[in-house]
Write a structure and sequence with these properties.
The chain has 157 residues and is mainly beta. The protein has one helix at 131-138; strands at 4-6, 31-34, 42-52, 60-70, 76-77, 89-90, 110-119, 142-152.
């Protein structure tokens, strides 16, 4: 069985509801996964937006959420997450803080990728790593990877 990732909040490729964005409560969407490969010792989640600042002229990938050492016993994350699964560690998003930062695109419709990695080990205390540092630590340890993409465009200007 392949690793799967879904959200009850939005369909793959669908619009992320405003409650999960800066125009709403900025609450993390619920995520559900299954089909972890044999030998999975931990999971890592990276949420990013490759369309920043303008989808017509992207200049950077903006990081919205970094989690790692999620235990393989976890089958998802609750909506508006306030307590992480035991043992889960957080990295820095591009607001230079831990935790979820929802979509808040300055212009146009952006794509947001929720990337789940099944790892063959736990990574241990990396401090509060950036996405780049987490990806370095995961190198050579990814058993399988899956992604879920949602989109968002601001209603207000």
């Amino acid at each position: 069985m392949a690793l799967t990732l879904k959200s009850p909040a939005f369909a793959p490729g669908g619009e992320i509801p405003a409650v999960h964005t800066c125009e709403g409560k900025d609450a993390s969407p619920a995520l559900e996964w299954s089909g972890l490969p044999a030998g999975t010792k931990s999971l890592a989640l990276i949420v990013d937006d490759p369309d920043a600042p303008d989808p017509k002229a992207p200049r950077m990938t903006y990081v919205h959420w970094v989690l790692y050492d999620i235990p393989p016993s976890a089958t998802g994350l609750a909506e508006a997450l306030t307590r992480l699964p035991p043992g889960t560690r957080e990295g820095l998003n591009d607001w230079k803080r831990t935790g979820y930062g929802g979509p808040c695109p300055p212009i146009g419709r952006h794509r947001y990728f929720f990337k789940l990695h099944a790892l063959d080990r736990t990574l241990g205390d990396l401090g509060t790593p950036t996405k780049a540092k987490l990806e370095q630590a995961m190198a050579g340890h990814v058993l399988e990877r899956v992604e879920l993409m949602g989109t968002y465009q601001k209603r207000r200007r």
